[in-house]
Design goal:
The chain is 44% helix and 8% strand. The chain is mainly α and 207 residues long.
Length: 207
């Protein structure tokens, strides 16, 4: 389960519930913007809510407005110590690329914040150290990856259209390179299978 994280309340509650039901058979990960990684910072330093991203020179500014939080929840940071499996960060410009690809391939519109976790399954699957630590090698053939997506239905049309415009890569000052686009489009085909698996799992669960 890959979940976008702001202050931590929603993803913390989802993770707690999932772990109560499936225990170690479920792996939960949080995703945060690179400019607002409050949970990563709090848990990584062990200071939890006692440190903010601004304290280490990060501006906390992100277009993922639902995740624009500088300081993590004390309750969540402490309770996730034994429940959360990983945290990753993502650049803002990638959110809009994933948003557009999801709309074009699945006809699903979500807000930018919801796309924060979209590259996590592949980052985790390519992380040999992670797979070895959790003894996952050879056990993923029947795994179902779920990307927890939120929002989009109440976004005004003019703002929605602005989300679909090409986004500038802040590191290069230019739009996504052709290599970036080809990589993301290649990943998109695999991601479609993830959404299909998630849909099937949801149907089984609610039946």
């Amino acid at each position: 389960m890959c979940i976008p994280c702001g202050v931590g309340g929603a993803p913390g509650g989802v993770t707690y519930g999932i772990k109560q039901i499936w225990g170690e058979n479920a792996h939960c990960s949080f995703a945060e913007p690179t400019h607002a990684p409050c949970m990563l910072l709090g848990m990584g330093t062990g200071l939890n809510e006692k440190i903010a991203v601004e304290d280490i020179g990060i501006d906390g500014k992100t277009k993922a407005d639902g995740l624009a939080v500088g300081r993590a929840s004390k309750l969540v940071a402490e309770s996730m110590k034994t429940l959360l499996d990983s945290i990753s960060t993502i650049d803002d410009y990638k959110l809009f690329t994933y948003l557009k690809l999801l709309l074009e391939t699945e006809d699903i519109f979500v807000e930018p914040s919801a796309c924060a976790s979209f590259d996590m399954p592949f980052r985790l699957l390519e992380n040999e150290e992670y797979l070895e630590y959790y003894n996952l090698k050879g056990k993923l053939e029947n795994a179902t990856h779920i990307l927890w997506a939120t929002g989009g239905s109440m976004v005004p049309e003019d703002e929605m259209l602005s989300y679909l415009q090409p986004q500038v890569n802040p590191d290069t000052g230019s739009f996504l390179s052709q290599a970036d686009i080809e990589e993301l489009e290649g990943v998109c085909g695999r991601r479609r299978r993830i959404f299909r698996n998630a849909e099937r799992m949801a149907l089984r669960f609610y039946r």
